Amino acid sequence: MSLSFSGLEPLARKLELHSYLSQADRDALLALPFLVRPVPARTALFRSFDPSGYSCVLLEGYAARSKLLPDGSRQIIDLLLRGDPIGIERTLFRRADHVVEMLTRGKVAMIAGAELEALVAAHPNLLRALWSETMFGRSIQREWTINVGRRKAPARVAHLLCEMVVRHEQQGLGNRASFELPLTQGDLADCTGLTAVHVNRVMRILTEDRLVRRVRGRVAIHDWEGLSNLADFDRHYLDKRSARSASIHAEMPL
Amino acid sequence: MSLSFSGLEPLARKLELHSYLSQADRDALLALPFLVRPVPARTALFRSFDPSGYSCVLLEGYAARSKLLPDGSRQIIDLLLRGDPIGIERTLFRRADHVVEMLTRGKVAMIAGAELEALVAAHPNLLRALWSETMFGRSIQREWTINVGRRKAPARVAHLLCEMVVRHEQQGLGNRASFELPLTQGDLADCTGLTAVHVNRVMRILTEDRLVRRVRGRVAIHDWEGLSNLADFDRHYLDKRSARSASIHAEMPL
DNA sequence: CGTAAAATTGACTGACTTCAAATTCGGTGG
DNA sequence: CCACCGAATTTGAAGTCAGTCAATTTTACG
Predict the structure, then answer these.
(1) Strand C footprint nucleotides (protein C-beta < 7 Å)
(2) Of A109, A112, B93, B196, which has the fewest Cβ atoms less than 10 A away?
């Protein structure tokens, strides 16, 4: 059978970063029925036009969770890569307090809430894997809070780049030498709580210091040591704990 | 039986804010064996001296998740109130990338990881409730990111106070008229990404504008409309979605 | 009561923002 | 292939919000 060619492979890969999935779990996940929907750049997912009760998985392109403030400024609270689930909490809350918008054009897999519900009911281990995923999401969010809360502008940008390298590597989307990051400087500013102008100046400094280069939506890290040091970056929050057996009890002892 | 007098009542209450627990779930949760440990102020929970494999629930006092940066500054990433679970992710990750420290003296209930493991294995609904709890935690964390990322100092402090009112109300720990918040201005600064000096000036302004008063570790909101307006506060992220049936499928459709 | 921590206040500094204009880039149609 | 156009980037100058430093007062608590 060709289950391993399901479009949901990226999600399975992501879950397996931190959770053990049995072959049955994996097969069931990949057998989920879904609808592929192409999405244009700069449009919002889940904004009144989508049927409720669906969540989705990002298959192609880049997206951002963001919130618009009354004064018109925008804070991006997370970046979403291939394989990231979107809107799982959408059926938990009645309305979302933030928007998920595509930064580039892309594709999402739409999955019916009822299907997911049945899946995790039949496969408790997948439920645990998704819980674990939520935990890592919270961990990332904590780092973002620290980043905008206490670090200086150059460290903020550097930290964001470091996180993006690791998350791209995890998903097989590139490495330090080169990976895609098609965000405008305005987007980077909204990620880091800065202005586009200041991001521009900071990027110039990082480039002049030969830490990193950004060209045409791609990033190349020239000096990982220097960059991660400047950023106070510790990839621990993106990694599963090391060296434990892969039994589900070891994976999720609560 | 006197299960309803268990020290874990606050945790049950917290979970029931957003998840339906059957009587069996509730009984099982409250029957969890635990050890009450008194903790002095300004000490870290889970820092080398505690036996591994335990997580805990805050029974009395106030605690903060925080991270110390290389330059000596501190960012508080969450405040913990009575009933908040602490360290569930501690057994997920090998080492924590942040510290949980008591801000006041207090008491925690130490629960063995194995006990929790058995509990959620026997009660999948509790597992979902804890997952839901993690989701709300992530939601709160997102708001904190927005707060320090894009809001001006007065709005940041106001938003923190608004969140604290609601969370205290939810746990039956007071109301707008008066609730405990025994943080120093330095602590508030570390929550909001500001300095103690500036928090002092901001608090003076908020007080002069008759929005709020803070005296001896207690807060009284005088003008909720004004304060929440200044803060751009929307309590949605702290509340379960409204008006749906309490069946577990409705509570957690994924 | 005595002491240390916390709060308060003032003067000065600096990192980042704001505003505005010039340049480059990227995609599209001729 | 080139001309075009809006978006994104880049740069400069001036302004502001919040930080830093330092001294004083108040509060908490043994």
Answers:
(1) 5-11, 15-20, 25-26
(2) B196
- Contact list, B244 vs chain A (CB under 8 Å): 94
- Average pLDDT of the segment spanning A185-209: 98
Q: Reduce the DSSP state of residue A102 to 3 states and report it.
A: strand
Asked whether residue B75, judged by its CB, lies under 7 Å from any atom of the DNA or RNA strand D, the reply is: no
pLDDT given for residue B98 in this prediction: 86
CB-based contacts of A1: which residues, under 8 Å, 6+ apart? Answer: none
Residue B72 in this model has a pLDDT that exceeds 50: yes
pLDDT, tens only, A49-70: 455 678 899 999 999 999 999 9
> Contacts of strand C, CB cut-off 7 Å?
A 152-154, 189, 193-195, 197-198, 201, 216-217; B 184-186, 196-197, 200-201, 203-204
A204 CB-contact burial (10 Å; exposed 0-12 / middle 13-18 / buried 19+): exposed
Mean pLDDT of chain B: 88
Q: Please tell me the distance from the alpha carbon of residue B57 to that of residue A185, in angstroms, as a whole number.
A: 43
With CB atoms and an 8 Å threshold, state whether B253 touches A73: no
Which residues sit opposite A134 in a β-bridge?
A: none
> 3-state DSSP call for residue A221?
strand
Which positions in chain B touch A117 (Cβ < 8 Å)? 249, 253-254
Q: Do A74 and B134 touch (CB under 8 A)?
A: no
Give the list of residues 6+ apart from residue B233 with CB closer than 8 angstroms, or none: B158, B159, B162, B163, B227
Residues B23-43: tens digit of each pLDDT: 999 999 999 999 999 999 999
Q: Under a CB-based contact definition with an 8 Å cutoff, are residues A144 and A54 in contact?
A: no
Higher-confidence position of B91 and B172: B172
The strands making up A35-39's β-sheet, listed across from edge to edge, are A35-39, A106-112, A54-60, A85-86
Q: Give whole-number Cα distances, B71 to A155, A231, B60, B75, in Å.
A: 12, 12, 32, 12
Distance B63 CA to D23 C1' (A): 32
* Residue A243: CB atoms within 10 Å: 5
Whose tokens are 């874990």? That residue is B8
- Residue whose CA lies closest to nucleotide D27 C1': B216
Q: Å from A184 (CA) to D8 (C1')?
A: 7
Q: What confidence tens digit (pLDDT) does each residue in B233-252 have?
A: 999 899 875 433 333 333 33
**Residue holding tokens 């999401």?**
A137
B50, pLDDT greater than 80? no
Q: Hey, what amino acid is at B108?
A: V
